């Protein structure tokens, strides 16, 4: 099973998947009306232009997915080809699959309408398996990774539908549905694929080199810069502006906190690049679910301070504990960057929801907490609107994160079991975190390099 | 001729060129009306704002030209200064020249109107010699490169005018006028400058190092991410949205295909960074000419699959054959990334044009195939509109690519002859692919690096 | 004082600063009306959307601040963690502080209104201490750097208010208030912290490695590409389009000039990466103050040519002279990239202002030179409008740069004295330009790297 034949059959399966996508696109996908020519005698309403007004934000998110995630994971000293390459491979596969999967949940007349919105959604969906990949980085084959992502995105789409459309939770920046889901799914898979207890030492290759750490900073910085676009892309009007402002401030506060706490808890009070590369971004995750709410600048800054602190402490104390005791390596520390900050965001959303009033949110209540509309008797109930009160909405927020964790962990364990016990090839310990098993690598370099 | 004096005179010539540009700007270029102050008593129509609505896409294209091309070419182990530096140098010279050259073809009252549109066009024009540079990378002096780009852009502007305004072909993303032209022009120059038959071996410097390969991925990824902006910037309304969607899907499909085919045809089934860096982008080229047509998602995906396959096979089999038999090195493989995918795009455009009907394209027919307007007798003929039928338009598409190839190859051979046989200094074999002949390079680095 | 305890107390102070920010946000900052929900019965004027129309330019500036400055400073061979990390740390602290400081100068009803505009302003303010950091790079502790930035931004906000609102100078791209201020403030601090005369040799670590130079090109290129956004973000309508066009052309001309002059003045006529990384950008600074004026394309190109020449000559002759004679190291050469080009911009602004007429600027005169409105008797005087004539406005431009230099240099000397003579720890000579005193650095790397 470890022969080249296994590789070949794995890649052939992926090609077949691509061809199945082609057929599904042909059968089910049509351009949305805004992307079709106007009838000759129609009056141009100028709406087409407005329809693509989110294009700049879409492009920011593209950079986050492909450059941000890809380069953030180049920090390993001998795994840079895989980090950037597999990110590209996985994202290219997943965006197609996400257009289809999310499309199936919103079909009209048996067809999926294709517009800019769909590919924005697809890019967001691509973040999910990329987050999980961080927990597994260097310990799976590309075939395992890609197959995992196909399972995961299907499950993600279902869970997101459940959370947003059935439970009607607010989750503007996707911290619950994207970050928590991706992180805990990945951790569950990592738990299933964990090494035997006698192979648990951390290898030299599981660390950075001077150069690889700087490559990783490219990823960090682009993620930092464009995070407000990720959090605000699905919000409109004033809510969108608040999402930008809150995310920006939370990131800034988390960054300052990360540097301080990193220096305070580290050996000889030296700063740790792992913290700088990751925990600075925790502010973006922790504010995600609530980024369009009326937090105030101080609310955003407070969330950032908490997130930066928790994330650094997680890297410093919790991750080594998990490696030692659970044999769970979490290569990129997604639990500290995505997992715990997403839990903070979910809790914050319950707190803010419990205080939400129609007097405060006015006309935006319907967008943000649609299930609350109708409570004051002056609004007609809308689709799915249950006339919840604020406490009840807070409860649903917590229910939403609980169900997400359940589905993510359950799905991750199942997927991990499939990857481990079925016909997939598993990497051996000495193949971990090393490009050369799956890539042509330049022959031993001389000192000029 | 190989003395510093040759260098000095070359650079002095380039400075004179810059000063000639200054004079030409002074004589011929004026701000367009949208960039001039409104008269005090004029009513503000708010049009100025709309005029710069393409600014975000312009910036995306800027990143493609300067970061994308520059870093894509850093893959050579000792040619990174030149890759990023000469890209900057060439693009800075060419954008000025393109504003002038393209301006001369569209003068009003003896003046060129300067607006955002001109510099978008100039950025697109800069792509042309940068593509050619890929075929020559490491085997010319900067002076040769810059002089080539001045010739080439003048010829490009003329050919583009011919193709779009005389033959009225569709070429929304510029695969014919930009990619095919740049690739075959560059290959023709490379053919003229090819090494003597006893110097044809591929040197160690013609390959990558581990670090340089990761730098190159910066270029690849930004080109990938922003390609939809390149293809859609000149389209409007619904056509613009289709250009975005089709380019995105074609890139995604080409990427998945590239990884699979690369693994299947490579030694030991290992992935090859050359393929990943380049062939993943072939989907963007191959969909270029037709990106605003009604391809459907499946059409875009199919084009991507074909492009990825052809491109990888080209790198694997055709390029080594050309190196061995024609002594044509094509350092970056532009034939596989730009040349062949552009031919695919031209053929696709003939096929789709042959099926175009006014019933399908409605009010957009005039924008996309202006020469076809009038065929059904219900539209008045517009300027240049010949009332072509669909088959005839298809023929023109093929005629357009044929003329483009002819002009590109003829111009390239001529330019190559000038670079080789006139007073230019030519690099010797042992000066190839090495920064230090034209750059101050840090003294031999020690192992700390 | 050189014990870890000094580090600890420094970081603790920074945490306290962050918490003070939190309290100030809570006390003084509120969302602006555009970022608040519309009343249920209000008619949606669609204005919210327009309010964030500058969002794409904001994101370009974010990339300049975090990626551009951060990576431009990675050129030192062993200071890449600090370059990218401290940029992130400083910018994250400063943006919060700038929102507050600039807000205090424009309070309404005792509150600061928070909107996208504020964080655009904050990003621009972050450029100021980052420029100063370039003059000090590698020769301060992070604590010194951060404390300096807090002082500096307060002073910057005051000086900017003075220049723009009291003296009513034009400074669209901020060359006077941002670039000149940041450069001369930094140089003054560097002068105070200069080494003793027996420690003035330039160490090996004060130079680049092959890899670090390519990292720096990431910074250069992103700064180049997005500079038009920096210069135009505060301009509107036609002035905004001119700012884009002029900046683009000036950068292009400066780039061509930089390459030529670098080759002509360098040893063996080889290009120097320091020039390419920095002087290519001088065109963006030199055109900054005047970028929205009616320069014409030739005016912009001429400014670029002058800036490129002056900047390269500065690096080649002036900087080594300053190092040798003043013991002023100016690690990144900010005097050549920001200082002198900003002076050119100020002089250009006086020249163009002296020729400005209401016949030429029409309705834009009020935006660009508000103090000149009223001179022709047909306009009512506006707030602060003094009915200046053109010569007088030119004088104010020169007065503006003079006062800016005075405040910057005075403030820098004072700040430098505080950093040197109070309780701050100062780096010793052998700790300069080396990450490992403040960062965990991977253990000695082997030759594989």
Keywords summarizing the entry:
2 strands, globular, 65% helix, homotrimer, 449 residues, two-stranded parallel ribbon, mainly alpha, Ammonium transporter fold
Please write out the topology.
The structure is a homotrimer of 449-residue chains.
Chain A (H helix, E strand, L loop, with lengths): L3 H25 E3 L15 H5 L3 H18 L7 H25 L7 E3 L1 H21 L5 H25 L8 H18 L17 H23 L4 H29 L7 H6 L3 H5 L9 H31 L7 H21 L3 H4 L3 H4 L21 H32 L28
Parallel strand pairs in A: 1-2
Helix pairs in contact in A: 1-4, 3-4, 3-5, 3-8, 4-5, 4-6, 5-6, 5-7, 6-7, 6-16, 7-13, 7-16, 8-9, 9-12, 12-13, 13-16
Account of the 3D structure:
With 449 residues, chain A is mostly helical. Chain A has one domain: Ammonium transporter AmtB like domains (Ammonium transporter fold, Orthogonal Bundle). Chain A contains 16 helices and 2 strands. The first copy, chain A, has a two-stranded parallel ribbon with strand order 1-2. In chain A, α3 runs antiparallel to α8, α8 packs antiparallel against α9 and α13 packs antiparallel against α16. Chain A is globular. Chain A starts with a helix and ends in a 28-residue tail after the last helix. About 2% of the residues of chain A have low confidence. Chains in contact: A-B, A-C, B-C. The interface between B and C is large, with 71 and 73 residues. Chains A, B, C: One of its GO terms (molecular function) is ammonium channel activity. Chains A, B, C: Its main location: membrane. Chains A, B, C: InterPro entries: Ammonium/urea_transptr (IPR029020), NH4_transpt_AmtB-like_dom (IPR024041), RhesusRHD (IPR002229). Chains A, B, C: It comes from Drosophila sechellia.
């Amino acid at each position: 099973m470890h022969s080249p034949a296994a590789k070949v059959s794995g890649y052939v399966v992926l090609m077949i998947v691509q061809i199945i996508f082609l057929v599904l696109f042909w059968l089910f996908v049509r351009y949305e009306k805004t992307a079709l020519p106007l009838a000759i005698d129609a009056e141009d309403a100028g709406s087409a232009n407005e329809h693509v007004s989110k294009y700049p934000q879409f492009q920011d998110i593209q950079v986050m997915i492909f450059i941000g995630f890809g380069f953030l994971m180049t920090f390993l000293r001998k795994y840079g080809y895989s980090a950037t390459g597999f990110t590209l491979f996985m994202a290219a596969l997943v965006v197609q699959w996400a257009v289809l999967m999310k499309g199936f949940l919103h079909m009209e007349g048996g067809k999926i309408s294709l517009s800019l919105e769909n590919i924005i959604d697809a890019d967001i969906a691509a973040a999910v398996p990329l987050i999980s990949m961080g927990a597994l980085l260097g310990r799976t084959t590309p075939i395992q990774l890609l197959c995992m992502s196909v399972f995961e995105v299907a499950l993600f789409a279902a869970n997101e539908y459940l959370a947003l459309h059935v439970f009607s939770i607010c989750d503007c920046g996707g911290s619950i549905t994207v970050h928590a889901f991706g992180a805990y799914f990945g951790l569950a898979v990592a738990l299933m694929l964990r090494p035997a207890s006698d192979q648990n030492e951390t290898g030299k290759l599981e660390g950075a080199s001077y150069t690889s750490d700087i490559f990783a900073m490219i990823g960090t910085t682009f993620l930092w810069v464009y995070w407000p676009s990720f959090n605000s892309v699905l919000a409109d009007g004033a809510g969108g502006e608040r999402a930008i402002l809150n995310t920006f401030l939370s990131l800034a506060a988390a960054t300052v906190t990360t540097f301080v706490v990193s220096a305070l808890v580290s050996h000889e009070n030296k700063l740790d690049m792992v913290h700088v590369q990751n925990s600075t971004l925790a502010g973006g995750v922790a504010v995600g679910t609530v980024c369009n709410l009326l937090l105030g600048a101080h609310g955003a800054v407070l969330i950032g301070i908490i997130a930066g602190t928790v994330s650094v402490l997680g890297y410093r104390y919790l991750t080594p504990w998990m490696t030692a005791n659970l044999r769970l390596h979490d290569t990129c520390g997604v639990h500290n960057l995505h997992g715990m900050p997403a839990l903070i965001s979910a809790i914050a959303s319950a707190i803010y929801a419990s205080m939400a009033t129609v007097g405060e949110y006015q006309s935006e209540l319907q967008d943000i907490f649609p299930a609350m509309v109708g409570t004051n008797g002056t609004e007609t109930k809308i689709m799915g609107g249950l006339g919840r009160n604020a406490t009840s909405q807070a409860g649903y927020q917590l229910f939403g994160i609980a169900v997400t964790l359940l589905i993510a962990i359950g799905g991750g364990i199942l997927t991990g079991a499939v990857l481990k016990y079925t016909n997939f090839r598993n990497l051996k310990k000495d193949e971990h975190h090393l490009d050369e098993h799956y890539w042509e690598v330049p022959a031993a370099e001389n000192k000029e390099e």
